[in-house]
Amino acid sequence: MVSAFFLFFSLQAIFPVSPLYIVEVGGSSADNGLATWVFTLAALLIRPLAGILSDRWGRKPILVLGAVLFSGGPVFHAFASNVPLLLVAKALHGAGLGCFSTANQAFVADLLTSDRYGEGLGVASIAPSLAMVIAPLFGESMVGAFDFRRSFFAFGAIGGLGLLTTFVLPSRSAGFVQSSSAEGGSLREALRRQGVRAGSLGMALLGVPFGTFISFLPLLASARGLGGTGLVFAIYALTGAMVRPVAGRAVDRWGARWVVLLGLLVVGLTMTGLSAVLGRWALMGLSAIMGIGSAAASAALDAKVQMSVGRSLRGSASALQYAVFDTLVGFGSLGFGFLAEATDYGVMYAVVGAVVLLGVLVGGLGWRSIRQRI
Fold this sequence. Notes:
Layout: H1 2-12, H2 18-24, H3 29-57, H4 59-78, H5 83-110, H6 117-124, H7 126-145, H8 148-167, H9 187-191, H10 194-223, H11 230-254, H12 257-274, H13 280-307, H14 314-342, H15 345-365
């Protein structure tokens, strides 16, 4: 949790800064969407390999490799003086996120008993959420006090603390069983598990609103004169941190299906609200509600996916789940970036909300293709 806190702090400090930096180096709203897409595409492409290798070689080597790239991501940004170089920095940063987060979820699951996956994974995921309470405000204040380049170096130094912490993790987490290629570490075998397929579908639906939320909220706030979004992201993260353990415990007791559907319903309604928000207090309130919905849904999906597989497939299952999430974050941000460019941010968020609510309706009705329990 300490390692994840510092590494995600270094990433989340960039959230309110990156869209403004893209404009600073000559980019546009569409370039902002493209940058998010490149970041998530890199994470997507590295996840399958990271998952398989974490199942076969152990979690720690992949955690360390991910932490090296993760902590170096902000430093790469410091040397990006134009949009093409910034896209390279985003790709390296995304690869670090993909390696670390994939292996980290499997590492934590190794430490848990099967009846407490929801609560345990929910507690562990508090670390990135708590980092986000502080990091965006810190990022905004650093850029205000200094400049982009020195701020990026500071973010990288904070990520370096996470890298150092990663080195002291045990080489084998408690429940890890090393797998051969015949025994585990297989994406195909993980995909055969119904819980992994259903969990990945849920993550796909969550990816679209999350991508547009982190990518375009600063630009929406700027266009409507609602002020900076550092505090807004902090409120989002704080409510998410509070909800995750509670949602995980609910999953352990009652199952994941309705926790996921309720969480996604809240997210869809929040996106619809963002399309019309005109006041700063309303923006902060919607961000708090977004934190509740997205945290509940993701905590439930994490638990269900890990419940569906044995130790030898945890990394592969996590890779599949978040590869789907990354795909929808990236393509959603890119596509909706063009929509925002052609219309405005209000129309964009209204369409995102409609997409999510339609998905919840389909899931709630239990159409045959997805009616199996998540």
